[in-house]
Amino acid sequence: MSGGGAGMSGGEGMAIVPGMTELTRPYWDAAAEGRLVIRECRGCGRLQHPPVPACPACHGADFGWREASGEGAVYSYTIIRHATHAALADAIPYVVALVELAEGPRLVTGITGCPPESVTVGMPVRAAFRRVTDEVTLPYFEPA
Amino acid sequence: MTPRAVAIAGIGQTAYARALPRTAWELAIEAVLSACADAGLDVAEVDGMCRFTEPFETVSEAMLVRALGIGELSFFAQAPHGGEALGAVLAQAAAAIEAGLARIVVVYRALSQSQGGRFGRADGRGPGVATRASGGAADIIVPETGNLSFAWPYGLMSPGQLFALWATRYEAAHGLTRDQLTTALGSIAIAQRAYANRNPNAMMRDRPMDWEAYQNARMISEPLRLFDLCLENDGACAYVVTSAETARALRDDPVYVLSATQTLSPYREPMGIYVQGDLLELFPPAAAERLFSGAGVTRKDVDVAEFYDATSYMPLRSLESYGFVPDGKAWRYVAEQGTGPGSPLPVNTHGGHLSEAYLHGMNGVLEAVRQLRGTSFNQVPGAEVALVGAPAGSATILAR
């Protein structure tokens, strides 16, 4: 799997998947459909990731999910060369990044579709989706 | 908090090693008894305890009261966030003493990573244990707590990996080359190793490290190498907090608490990667101002600093966050002036978590006390004021 991106179904056949709550499930459900969404306050328009139950700006509790463009830039990254979990033994090296979306919020994600050594801070990226189990798809990013 | 109203009257510790043949409970008992003996107190006089919450501290005050035969605690408190709260447990102890809630408060930290799991591993404990079988394979379902469910599935699971993101951002924000960043991180790691080589209690006492050894260490999470990351070990530390008056009655050289702080703001809990402003600002600058104004001292008055260092990036950035070096200048400062003996501000004179042992900041407090008593193995001549600080802003200023 050139270009890193752990995929998180590496050694020992284990997949590492998000547990979901009422608050976070819509994010993962959208990802399963190949869409990147960010929780948005309908009162003041603030975008918040990861979601919290109240709007930190206006304290409103009426939320929707904004469809993000999927465009962004690498804010920071690390090439991980030492597996800290048995499930990742076959995944190294892989790139974990903070990506700043065009809409503002930053996500923890992985960079795929390029050699790990070619990733730089500021590099433009776009969303790519990786199915890790029958139920779970994770938003990744690749060079734009 | 009133400066010099409260003092540290005793310190105690166990041996530090990769594996000790004793439980964290046994280690805690030894450290607490040692701290009380150092203070000249019978442990039965202890009436208060402060510690970090679980999962950081696994030895409860109830376990210690039971094992040590302490009649009654009238005050006990815990602070979350482990070593990032190193100033919080002292602030709570000091506040309790000033408020008359307790007379003798013991602060402790005991750790058995050989029995309880290494912090550098994400499997075998906590959310890392497989929770569901699917198609013959076991899956890890990461519960949503502290945003972990948004990070672990991408393989971002350990503090060292997280702080690699901070170090890379620092490099980019200040226009450093990778070599310049490596020189800065290595300057800190090598200076601390040299301190540890003169500290007989340090795990790395017999392991010198030069530039070649540092640079040849394997990459763990770029740009952090093996020697940019803290040790994994067993051990325990404790110290005794009491009123200045009681401390003076117990010993000639109490170490006074000038100030102690805790701080929390959105996503700036330790490793709060989702902060919406500048990632590099790990705590509000107002917290550092509160620390110094409360203590009634300036940066120039500080003779020695012990910075929490789970990674070598943390002391680098703490020099800036606490205002000793302007933002974006510490990388050059540590390479040119250094943090070793005779430098403007010696840092982590015990060897720190990188080279003495990892005790969640508590061994840094003990080293600051030794410096102010004049008994450190790497004594800063005439040290009168010491700062112990965590990267996320919880800190203390102590003085003799």
Mean pLDDT of chain A, rounded to whole units? 92
**Helix and strand sequence of chain A:** EHEEEEEEEE
Q: How many strands of chain A?
A: 9
H/E order of the elements of chain B? Answer: EHEHEHEHEEHHHEEEHEHEHHHHEE
What is the assembly state of the chains in this entry?
heterodimer
Kindly state the percentage of residues in helix of chain A. Answer: under 10%
CATH arch. level architecture of chain B: 3-Layer(aba) Sandwich
Distance linking N and C termini of chain A: 19 Å
Largest interface: A-B, 47 and 47 residues
Q: Tell me the radius of gyration of chain B.
A: 20 Å
Sketch the major β-sheet of chain A.
5 strands, antiparallel
What distance separates the N and C termini of chain B? 17 Å
Total beta strands of chain B: 13
Q: Strands of the biggest beta sheet of chain B: in what spatial order?
A: 3-2-4-9-1-10-13-12-11
**Strand coverage percent of chain B:** 15-25%
* Structural category of chain A: mainly beta
Poorly predicted spans of chain B: none
Q: What is the number of domains of chain B?
A: 1
Major β-sheet of chain B, in short? Answer: 9 strands, mixed
Radius of gyration of chain A: 16 Å
